[in-house]
Amino acid sequence: MSFLSVKNLTLRLRDNRAPLLRDVSLEVSAGEVHGLVGESGAGKSMIGKAVLGILPRAVEIAGGEIWLDGVDLLTLPPAARRKRVGGLAALIPQDPLTALNPSRRIGPQITDRLVDILGWKRTEAEARALDLLGEVQINDPARVMRQYPHELSGGMRQRILIASAFAAEPKLIVADEPTTALDVTVQKQILRLIAGMQARHGTALLFVTHDLGVVSKVCQSLSVLYAGRILEQSTVRDFFAAPTHPYSAALLGATPKYTDPEGSLTPVPEAIIARLRAEIAAYDEAHHG
Amino acid sequence: MFWQKLIARIGTTAVTLIGVAVIVFVVIRVVPGNPVAMMLPPGATEADVARLTALYGLDKSIPAQFLIWVQGVLQGDFGTSITTRQPVLDLVLGRLPATLELSIMALVMAVIIGGIAALTGTRLRGTKAEGAIDVANGMALSVPDFLWGLALILLFGVLVPVFHISGRVTPSLDLPFTTGFYLFESLFRLRFDLWADIVSHMLMPALALAIPLAAIIGQLLKQSLKETMHLDYVTLSRTKGYGENHVITREALPNAILPTLTLVGVQFTFLIGGTVIVERLFSYEGLGNMAIDAVINRDLPLIQGIVILFAVIFTAVNLVVDLLYTVLNPRLRHG
Which of B231, B240, B242 sits opposite A98 (nearest CB)? Predict the structure, then answer.
C-alpha cells in the first residue's frame, strides 16, 4: 500500500469549469522521492496543493480520491482533514522570501504547529526547533530563533523553511519548486540539503519541478505532466535511459548541455505539441459536462 | 536614529503651530464682527466703545497685537476671554478632558465596530453576508457624523428614550471629581453609578462620531486582509493544520493592520474636528461646544486658544501614530 495514493483526481475552475487536472493518478510509497515534471501551467503544483488542502478558492475538486496513510482525505470533514494533513504532511514552499510571516519571529514559526496542533510542550518544541536548525546548518540557532525574517538571507530562510517542514517528523513532504527562487550558487546546497534530510528522516517527497536535471539527482520515480494530464510515469532510471512518450523524449532533448549550450537548446517540436493538444481536446470531448 | 526622528518631528511641529497661529490670528481679525460691540449694552456711547477697544488692545495694528499675544503665550498666558473674563488657558484646559474622553471613546468604538466588520467580512468572503457588510459599510460612510447624531437623538432619545442625549452628566448629581476626566475618574473611584450615568450621556455622541470612522476602518482593513490572505505564509500556515479563524487573526491581521493604522491616525484628527458640531448637537460641554460659542461671541483670545490647542492635539496624534507604526512593524525597528 502506497503512503500517498492519488486516484483519478480531476480539478477545474469554479466559474467556467475549465479543467486544470484531468484524471490524474499517482502513487508514492513511504520514503520514496517522486518528481512531478512539466511546463508552467501543466498542473504539477496543483497536485501538491490538492494533497495539502491549499487549493485556491477558484479551484474545485471535480472528482477523484486522495489517500494519505490509508484514509481518503476528501471524505473527511475540513477540520479533521486539516489536522490529519498537519500531522502527516508538510510543505517546502517555492519562495522563501514570502513564505515566512514578516511580523513574527522565526522560533514560533517553526514551533507553532508542534505546540498548537500536535500538543507538544513549548520547551520540547523549542528544543526540537534548535536541533533541526542545527541540522540544516544554521549557525547560532538560538539567536536565529529570536530574529525576524527580514534579518536573514534568502538561503537562510529556505533552510529555516526546510527545518520547519521536518519539525513534526512528517511522512510526506511536498517540495514545490524549492530552489527556483534561489540564487544559482545556493540552489545546489539547498538541493543537497533536502536530499540529505529526506534520506536521514526517511520521508516521502513529492518534488515539483520543471528541471529534469534536479529530478535525475534527487528522485526515484517521476510523472510527466502536460496540460493537466499525466503522459508518462516511470522510475527515474528507466526514464532517463529511454522515455516512452515522444513529449518526454523532446523534453529531455530540450535540456541544455554544458558542452554545447547553443546547439542543445532545442524546443519541443510543433508536431508533438499539436498531437498533445488534439489528445487533450478529445479527452475533454469524451468527458464533457 | 529614533531620537533624531523625534527631534526633527518636534521641529516641524513648532513651525506648523506658528503657521496656524498666524493664520487664525489674522483671519478672525479681518472677518466682520466686533467683539466689543457685542459686549456693550445697546445705547453705549462711542467713547465707551473706544475705551473698551483700547482695554483689550484691539486698537493696535494686527502685527502689534500678534507680538503682544505671542509674548504672553511664551510665558504661558493665552490672554483673557472677552465674554467670561477668565484666563483662556483655564477655560480651554477645563474643557479639554471632556472632548478627549469623547474622542477616545468614539475611536475605541470605531476600532471595535470596524474591526469586527472587517474580520467577519474576511471570514465570510464570497458569501452573501460579505455583501451585506459591504452595503452597511457604504451606508455608514455616505452619511456624515452630525446626521448620524440627529438620527440617534430621534431613535434613542425620542422614540425609545433609553440614553441621555443632552449634556455630559445629569446636573442634579453630586460630583466628587478633582480632574475633568469624569469617565476615568468615576471608574478609578469605583463610583459605578456615576460612571453609568456618564457613559449613558457619552454613548450617543460617541457613536455618531464613530460610525463613519468605523466604516472607513472596516473597508480598508478588510481590503488589506483579503490581499494578505493570498500570501505564501498564510498558505503555509494552513498546511500546518490551522483553520480559517487562526489564519486570519494570527497570520494575516498583524500584517494587514499597518495601512489601517496610518489611516486611523489621519481620521482621528477628523474625528476630533467632528466633535465641534456633534458636541453642539448633544449639548456636550466640551471644547467644540465652547469653540462655537467663542466664534458666535467673537471672543478672539478664546478662539485663538482653542484653535492652537486643536493644532497641538492633531500633531500629537500624528506623532503617536508614527511611533506606533515603528513598534508594530519590525522591519522599521532595525535600520
Answer: B231
Q: If we measure between CA atoms, which residue out of A208, A238, A213 comes closest to residue A225? A: A208
The gap between the terminal CA atoms of chain A, to the nearest Å, is 33
Cell matching residue A224: 510527466
Which residue stretches of chain B are H helix? 2-30, 35-39, 46-55, 62-74, 88-123, 128-142, 145-152, 182-188, 192-228, 232-239, 244-246, 253-281, 287-296, 300-328, 330-333
Q: Where residue B7 falls among pLDDT bands split at 50, 70, 90?
A: confident
> Which residues in chain A have Cβ-Cβ distances shorter than 8 Å to B252?
none
Q: Is A146 in the B-facing interface, judged by CB distances under 8 Å?
A: no
> A119: distance to nearest CA of chain B, Å?
12
Strand partners, A91: A174
**A157 near B CB under 8 A:** no
Mean pLDDT of B149-177: 90
Which of B126, B240, B331 faces A113 most closely, judged by CB atoms? B240
Chain A residues 101-140 with CB within 8 Å of chain B: 101-104, 112-113, 116-117
Q: Tell me the domains of chain B and their CATH numbers.
A: 97-296 (1.10.3720.10)
pLDDT at A180: 86
Average pLDDT on B273-291 reads 94
- Count of pairs with CB atoms under 8 A, one residue in A, one in B: 71
Which residues does chain A have within 8 Å of residue B246's beta carbon, measured at their own beta carbons?
116
Please tell me the number of Cα atoms within 13 Å of A47 on its side-chain side: 42
The mean pLDDT of chain B is: 89
Q: Is domain A4-286 classified as CATH 3.40.50.280?
A: no
Q: Give the up-direction half-sphere exposure of residue A273: CA atoms within 13 A in the CB hemisphere.
A: 7
pLDDT number for residue B157: 86
Indicate the pLDDT class of residue B333, thresholds 50, 70 and 90: low
pLDDT at A45: 92
Write out pLDDT tens, residues B61-113. 889 999 999 899 889 899 889 888 899 999 999 999 999 999 999 999 999 99
Lookup result for grid cell 474643557: B95
Residue with C-alpha cell 474545485?
A: A60
Distance from CA of A112 to the nearest CA of B (A): 8
Please report residues of A whose CB lies closer than 8 A to that of B238: 52-54, 82
Residue B1: per-residue pLDDT:
63
DSSP for B209-268 reads HHHHHHHHHHHHHHHHHHHHTTSHHHHHHHHTT--HHHIIIIIIHHHHHHHHHHHHHHHH
The ipTM value here is: 0.91
What residues 71-90 of chain A have any CB closer than 8 A to a CB of chain B?
A: 78-79, 82-83, 85-87, 89-90
Asked if B330 and A148 come within 8 Å (Cβ–Cβ), the reply is yes
Query: Which regions of chain A are under pLDDT 50?
Result: none
**CB–CB contact A52 B239 (8 Å):** yes
Asked if the C-beta of B329 comes within 8 angstroms of chain A's C-beta atoms, the answer is: yes
| Predicted confidence (pLDDT) at residue B335 exceeds the cutoff of 70 | no
Q: In angstroms, rounded to a whole number, what is the distance separating the alpha carbons of residues B88 and B106?
A: 27
**Which candidate from A79, A90, A103 shows the least CB-CB separation from B330?**
A103
